[in-house]
Amino acid sequence: MQPRGAYTVITHAEFCQRLRQGLQSNTDKILLRVVMSPQLDAPIEFTGRELLGRAEQFAANCSLQRDREVVLLLLPHSPELFLMELGLVLEGHIPAILAWPTSRVDAEKYQRNLVHQLCQLPADRLITLPRLAANLEGSLPYPVTSLALENSEVFEKQFPANRVSEQLKIEVLPERHSSPAADTLFLQFSGGTTGAQKAIVVTATMLTEQLTQLGDALRFSGGDGIASWLPLYHDMGLIACYWMPLWYGATSIQLAANDWVINPQLLLEYISRYHATICWLPNFAFSYLSQRREQTQQAHSLESVRAWINCSEPVRSRSVKEFRTAFVDRGVRPENLQSCYAMAETVFAITQSHLGRELRTVARSEMNHGSGSYTELPFDVIDDVYVSSGTALANTEIKIVGVDGQPCGDAICGEIHVRTPSLFSGYWGADGFQTHSLRDGWHATGDYGFQRDGELFVIGRLKDIVIVGGNNIFPEDVEAIVNTVDGIYPGRVVAFGVEDPEYGTQSLGVVAEMKGEFHEEAAQELEDAIRKLVLSTIGTAARYVAVVPQRWIVKSTAGKISRRETRERFVREMVASV
Amino acid sequence: MLPDSVAIRKAAQEAAAELTRRPIKEGQRLVSSGLIDSLSVLRLIALLERKLQVTIPPETLQPEDFDDLDLIVATVKRVAKPAI
Asked: Fewest CB atoms within 10 Å of the CB: A90, A205, A390, B55?
């Protein structure tokens, strides 16, 4: 093993050279399968050589005008999206994948919000589907390139042919103060929705280090196979399920998230058919799959999978047990259920559990939550145990910091801090590249947890971030959106997460006070308007929406709105009572 | 035997009301309005299966197929099979 702290700096050119060699050496081996609805039985396949050739051809066809363009990709799940990401990197450009909307959003609101978001990003170009490109053209301060997919019209059917620019005041692009580092490969978004999108710059060194250390921890090789439904705009989908197999010459099969949600057993079918060996899933997916167990008519064997990795949400013992019980007869073994702690700021993984060993747990009653205000945090932990996320990857250091800023001892809770060569150095946002302030190279993650015997246990978020199905949603974004609804008392909106024990994730909740006198019927109309607006701008439905009379929202003694107490009141009066 | 349109509509109305905790009107959008999220579509399917004693195979379905009562009736009639 390398000594901790030692790592190799790799340039963009060196990275691409190694990647090209790897793809070329897999001349006839299929490295990528993309499943496209409705031809779910016939994935589109690419060998290493085909991937390389098609990816470079795609990027070249875009006729980018200058070197190292920052290119936003707004495309649905498709072979072209996978090829563009790879091709643009190989051609020396900097792709950044944006979330494609689910096909049920309000098109007009979505497009207007999109323009607002895109104007905040100092990109050089947007590549999207033809109709959306036509609608957005003229509204953005950079060119929009149209890319037709084989079935563009299927994806575009929800967008009426209507230029957004006619309705929107063009915003002025902030001047770009600096550029991403010379060895930047691509950008990945960490979250944020309403103009506050922050992209993380991933360099060749960061990615290589991540793939090497995670690969070692997983004993990953070209013989592995990945099955994924995770979108490429999510770090788990992009890094673990796409770049990882590409780098090692392993095969991945990629489903669309939409297809998986309605038909979760598709994943099991493909695992069985192609003998996948590793499958990353957010915690809720373990519960979700378990509950659909009876729907899986065919007995797909899952014996080939050596690691089911639970990641992107706090690991719940209940979800792990449900999955193990539901699929034990298909070959899922307790020692194959694994976990990982990851975030886009460190490219992806920080820890990995030990292969071939059951996940460690610690009883809640044994834990010392330390002293100070952390004990006041509302963590709805539904299990009676905490589940380990494993140990730090080689070259990665973790420390737990208390409210006093001092490192905590073993088994004492505090904020998780991390230091690794894969750690980001800044965000690419409205003001160009902004260096992130790190103290001695340590990043304060905003997550709460503890270490015990070298293993990390993640309990929840210190910051008010709602994690719905592995996606981070900032309550401030939701509140800002809902504040724009006519009839809502401006500034009297609170968004929060409500634990969903059935699926082992959180649901989004919103409480807003009505302006003026309260009427039930008007409140319901406002609730409908809020649901529609949140869905079309955030892309996630708010499961709980309540429009309430004035002075319902709880304020602290200092007169500030208390998100925690409002949430508690809401759960007590409107969720628990059902 | 498969249930008729009237029975499906009644079951759909009850199931959607149960999920959303509010009465569901004709023509009211469920998924595109944000009233039911993607994960809850499967909850809706499970409720329909129980109420109607059918199985609804999810192959080729999309959340939009359950966006209002008319669509639910059409979808169930198209894909449902009697429960074994």
From this structure: B55
Query: Is the predicted pLDDT of residue A65 greater than 80, yes or no?
Result: no
Q: Which of B42, B59, B62 sits opposite A258 (nearest CB)?
A: B62
Helix (H) or strand (E) holding A392: strand A391-392
- Domain locations in chain A as residue ranges: 12-334, 362-461, 466-575
> Is residue A505 helix, strand or coil?
strand
What is the signed CA dihedral for A228, A351, A197, A459, rounded to 10 degrees? Answer: 100
Q: Where are the beta strands (DSSP E) in A51-183?
A: 70-74, 94-97, 125-128, 144-146
Question: What is the phi/psi pair of residue A566, to 5°?
Answer: -65, -45
> Alpha helix locations (H) across A452-507?
475-482
Question: Does the distance separating the beta carbons of B39 and A284 come in below 8 Å?
Answer: yes
> What is the complex's ipTM, to 2 decimals?
0.78
Q: Does B54 touch chain A (CB under 8 A)?
A: no
What local confidence, expressed as pLDDT, does residue A167 receive? 45
Q: What is the CATH number of domain A12-334?
A: 3.40.50.12780
Q: How confident is the model at residue A153 (pLDDT cuts 50, 70, 90)?
A: confident
Largest CA-CA distance found in chain B, in angstroms, rounded: 34
Residues 6+ apart with CB under 8 A from A261: B38, B39, B41, B42, B63
B 2-41 → A contacts, CB under 8 A: 21-22, 31-41
Give the model confidence (pLDDT) of A265-301 as tens digits. 899 999 999 999 999 999 999 998 998 887 666 668 9
A491 versus A282: the higher-pLDDT residue is: A282
**Cβ-Cβ contacts under 8 Å, B67 against chain A:** 104
For chain B, give every domain's residue range: 5-82
Q: Which fold has domain B5-82?
A: 1.10.1200
Q: Decide: residue A410, CB within 10 A, 0-12 exposed, 13-18 middle, 19+ buried.
A: exposed
Contact: A261, B31; criterion CB under 8 Å = no
Nearest-10 Cα torsion for A396, A400, A405, A408 = -130
Residues of chain A whose beta carbon is less than 8 angstroms from a beta carbon of chain B are 37-38, 40, 102-106, 258, 261-265, 284, 288, 291-292, 295, 297, 469, 503, 507, 524, 528, 531-532, 534-535, 540-543, 578
Using the beta-carbon criterion (under 8 Å), do B62 and A262 form an inter-chain contact? Answer: yes
Superfamily of domain A362-461: Luciferase; Domain 3 (2.30.38.10)
Q: Using CA atoms, how far apart are residues A517 and A528, in angstroms rounded to an integer?
A: 18
**How close, in Å, is residue B19 to chain A by CA atoms?**
10
pLDDT in tens, A372-408: 445 444 455 567 889 999 999 999 999 999 888 899 9
Q: Are A137 and A72 in contact (CB under 8 A)?
A: no
Residue-wise DSSP of A153-207? HHHHTTS-S--GGGTSPPPPPPPP-----TTEEEEEE-S--SS---EEEEEHHHH
User: A327 and A302 in contact (C-beta within 8 Å)?
Assistant: yes
Task: Record the pTM.
Answer: 0.86
Across the interface, do B33 and A535 touch by the CB < 8 Å criterion? yes
A264 has pLDDT over 50:
yes
Architecture per CATH, domain A466-575, reads as 2-Layer Sandwich (3.30)
Predicted confidence at residue A329, as pLDDT, reads 92
